[in-house]
Design a protein that fits this description.
The chain is about 60% helix and about 10% strand. It is an alpha+beta fold and about 400 residues long.
Amino acid sequence: MVGPEFSHVVPVEPPNAVGGLKKKGAGARSWILMDSTGGETLLDVDKYAIMHRVQIHARDLRILDPLLSYPSTILGRERAIVLNLEHIKAIITAEEVLLRDPLDENVVPIVEDLRRRLKSLYTIRDGNGDGNNLTVHHDVETGEEDDSPFEFRALEVTLEAICSFLAARTIELESAVYPALDMLTSKISSRNLDRVRKLKSQMTRLTARVQKVRDELEQLLDDDDDMADLYLSRKLAVASPVSGSGAASWFLASPTIGSKISRASRASIATVRGDENDVEELEMLLEAYFMQIDGTFNKLTTLREYIDNTEDYINIQLDNHRNQLIQLELFLSSGTVCLSIYSLVAGIFGMNIPYTWNEDHGFMFKWVVIVSGAFCAAIFVLIVANARAKGLVGS
């Protein structure tokens, strides 16, 4: 089910030979091609073959390089949509999808979803009357779903996959953060603090990833020209009457493209006439997934607020403990001052110096002790009362 352009690509061997294929040149990457007829091929090709196949520039293909850190991007080109959403790196044309690294554990579910939802779309069977009846029967069953261009169906699968993936990561993070914060609130310890610190770092990274996808969708929704660039079937329908050969010839070679041209002809006329609702279908699609990713972003925002509130509560607790220690230090300092006065009196009377009044006045000892002790106690009470009057210690 591949066209003549695949003379530049090498089909990948069965999975047990994949390990050997990875030893090829550094420019070769594993791709899976899924076309509108339901056929799929596992490929191991270099970037030049992909560039020739979908007619994009090297800078566009560089966005899909996993070794380079590019933000989430959805680019509309003349004959392809270049899509980089986290682990989903794909190129969508009017009749096929090229998905990078299909054996990756995060990409396998997307391949299965594409296989389930894209097969038998826009299939026109040539042959006897039974085949035509099957086609008509299929169109009746699917109803108005066939009105959506192939590229929008593929785009919807990728958007649904990335939104579901990020939502699942958010739910996992929530299930770990809330118990950890409750445990930290009940007992402040180094272990609990380190656990919350790691979870907060994960939340920060996940929030940045979600926000990149959200911002990309929002940017597309704000620009009608960018959304119009994603109508590949419409652009193909407009270009087909004047492009009998050249770069577009491989599109026209497919028997399935005729149906897309006829379905997109009305949209192309609307575009020429300047219909302001010509991107309404794509806008509704993007808005649906923008609301979903925005809900995930709001969950992460709420989670961050909960973490910040817990941190504030922990800081208040620590400040309270710190204030209690300061109060204890004040009491101890006041008592030390009073005892130092008492020790001063004891030191004066304990000097080995002969005094005339020291003879026959033994009763003076107890009065000196009593008066000194009462005086020191009175000073301590005055210090504490003054501190309470000024609000330095609690009542």
